[in-house]
């Protein structure tokens, strides 16, 4: 949480954060009073990046925070926020405007808590900032992050396809968008057989959520998000450990709704469309089966070799629909494969595009906004893994090693958008290594869209 520095009353009771870097530390330490020197030594504080030491006065009251920080990575502050007692804090030495802005963003994002189901909530640590920071911008990102994390963290029981549609409707109402939905049997009637089929095993109706906002004459930006509200794997049932976090399998939907809300809140002049196939992937007597053939919305036939590779199926129908509008930029976000996580780990989101210029730009904004993402290749050679002797192709490789699994999934999706230069696919985790919701790629892409306007 952030407070403006102008609030002098808040500053009076605030604790200073003293940032120290390793290379100056020994010299600095020499000049300190013995009490400080001894305390920092006792606590083994060496001013390494991320080192934290709380310092109290003679009364035992919190006096200062010593923090190892060499100014290279403002996101280090996210490690500090939740280690501090509730109260107000300020930076002892002034930093450049841009750096303070990034510190404030890191602080704000790390302050997020999911306390919807908690009886007791703890007060937070607040950072006092100067008017050098753009609070409107930070608030926009913070609200987007809060929406995204709340949607992902909410248990599947309370965030099924209907609740996800409600959330999208609320966002649409807030910003004057127009929303439509295709629900249940109507999906099959209108040819969205993949969305219909994947959701057949669930007692929830599947939905295709379709939100539009902005002016017709602005560049067309279409965002598609995987909205698998729970992924049990279907009849190819996941293991208990593999299933535990699968309430997060609508993370793609949460990412596109968050990005859309940020675009709408800051009035970026784009003609925006958000498409979310919202389903639950469940085993039951009516569930789709391995070996089934689906006639997709674009008439391609797909043999289901694994009911757990459901995300690409529902996304494919939504992407085919998106293509009818010929958007200037088409982006999808999905927690699509475990393989993306194996490739890049939990901190870095994978993205795929055939557009080198777009990739280069995006990586630039990724670095600038401290939002780590990395480009992966759409290597056509792996498509043979999806060979089917029954249908046009399969939805998953039969090879259990799943080598290059994220690339194979991207190749599957590419069949539905064509080899166009204006498609960007994110394969994201949806959560950090502890399973807490995490925003990936949204800030980098928001910057790209905000600054380039014309997607
Ligand atoms: N929701 C999963 C992907 C996933 C797994 C994301 C773990 C984040 C963490 C997806 O629907 C899935 O089950 N993918 C399979 C595909 C396979 C059957 C080809 C996978 O990655 O194992
Ligand atoms: Zn799955």
Characteristics of this structure?
binds zinc ion, 2 domains, alpha/beta, binds ligand BES, 9-stranded mixed sheet, Leucine Aminopeptidase, subunit E, domain 1, 455 residues, Aminopeptidase, 16 helices
Structure ligands: ligand BES, zinc ion
Number of strands: 18
Main beta sheet? 9 strands, mixed
User: In angstroms, what is the radius of gyration?
Assistant: 24 Å
**DSSP helix count?**
16
**Percentage of residues in DSSP E strands:** 15-25%
C-alpha termini separation: 32 Å
Mean pLDDT over the residues = 96
Overall structural domain count: 2
Query: CATH topology of the largest domain, what is it called?
Result: Aminopeptidase
Structural class by SSE content: alpha/beta
Indicate the CATH architecture of the largest domain: 3-Layer(aba) Sandwich
CATH superfamily of the largest domain: Zn peptidases
Using the coordinates above, name the CATH class of the largest domain: Alpha Beta
Helix content: 25-40%
General form: elongated
Which residues sit in consecutive blocks of at least 5 with pLDDT less than 50? none
What would you say this structure looks like, in words?
This protein has 2 domains: 3-130, Leucine Aminopeptidase, subunit E, domain 1 (3-Layer(aba) Sandwich), CATH 3.40.220; 140-452, Aminopeptidase. It is elongated and about 80 Å long. 36% of the residues lie in helices and 20% in strands. Helix 7 packs parallel to helix 11 (251-265). The strands form 3 sheets. Strands 7, 8, 9, 10, 11, 14, 15, 16 and 18 form a 9-stranded mixed beta sheet that branches. With 455 residues, it is an alpha/beta fold. The structure holds ligand BES and zinc ion. Residues 231, 249, 306, 308-311, 335-339, 341, 396, 402, 405, 429 line the site of ligand BES.
């Amino acid at each position: 949480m952030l407070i403006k520095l102008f609030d002098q009353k808040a500053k009076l009771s605030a604790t200073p954060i003293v940032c120290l870097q390793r290379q100056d530390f020994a010299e600095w330490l020499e000049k300190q009073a013995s009490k400080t020197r001894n305390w920092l030594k006792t606590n083994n504080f060496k001013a390494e990046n991320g080192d934290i030491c709380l310092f109290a006065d003679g009364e035992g009251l919190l006096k200062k925070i010593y923090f190892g920080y060499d100014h290279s990575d403002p996101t280090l502050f996210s490690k500090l926020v939740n280690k501090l007692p509730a109260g107000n804090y300020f930076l002892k030495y002034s930093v450049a405007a841009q750096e303070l802005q990034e510190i404030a963003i890191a602080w704000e994002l790390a302050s997020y808590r999911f306390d919807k189901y908690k009886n007791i909530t703890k007060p937070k640590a607040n950072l006092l900032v100067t008017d050098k920071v753009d609070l409107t911008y930070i608030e926009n990102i913070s609200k987007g992050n809060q929406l995204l994390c709340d949607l992902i963290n909410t248990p599947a029981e309370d965030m099924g396809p209907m609740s996800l549609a409600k959330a999208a409707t609320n966002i649409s109402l807030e910003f004057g968008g127009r929303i439509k939905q295709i629900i249940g049997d109507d999906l099959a009637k209108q040819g969205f057989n993949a969305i219909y089929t994947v959701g057949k095993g669930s007692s929830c109706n599947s939905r295709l959520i379709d939100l539009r906002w902005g002016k017709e004459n602005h560049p067309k930006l279409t965002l598609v998000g995987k909205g698998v509200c729970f992924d049990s794997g279907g009849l190819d049932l996941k293991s208990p450990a593999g299933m535990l976090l699968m309430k997060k399998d609508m993370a793609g939907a949460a990412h596109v709704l968050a990005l859309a809300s940020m675009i709408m809140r800051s009035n970026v002049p784009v003609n925006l469309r958000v498409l979310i196939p919202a389903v639950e992937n469940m085993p039951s007597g009516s569930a789709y089966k391995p070996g089934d053939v689906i006639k997709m919305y674009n008439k391609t036939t797909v043999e289901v070799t694994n009911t757990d590779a459901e995300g690409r199926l529902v996304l494919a129908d939504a992407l085919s629909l998106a293509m009818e509008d010929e958007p200037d930029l088409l982006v999808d976000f999905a927690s699509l494969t475990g393989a993306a996580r194996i490739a890049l780990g939990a901190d870095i989101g994978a993205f795929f595009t055939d557009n080198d210029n777009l990739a280069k730009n995006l990586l630039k904004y990724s670095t600038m906004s401290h939002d780590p993402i990395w480009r992966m290749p759409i290597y056509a050679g792996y498509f043979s893994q999806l060979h089917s002797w029954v249908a046009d192709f399969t939805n998953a490789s039969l090879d259990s090693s799943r080598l290059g699994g994220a690339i194979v999934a991207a190749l599957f999706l590419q069949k539905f958008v064509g080899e166009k230069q204006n498609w960007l696919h994110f394969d994201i985790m949806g959560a950090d290594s502890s399973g807490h919701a995490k925003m990936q790629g949204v800030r980098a892409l928001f910057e790209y869209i905000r600054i380039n306007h014309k997607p």
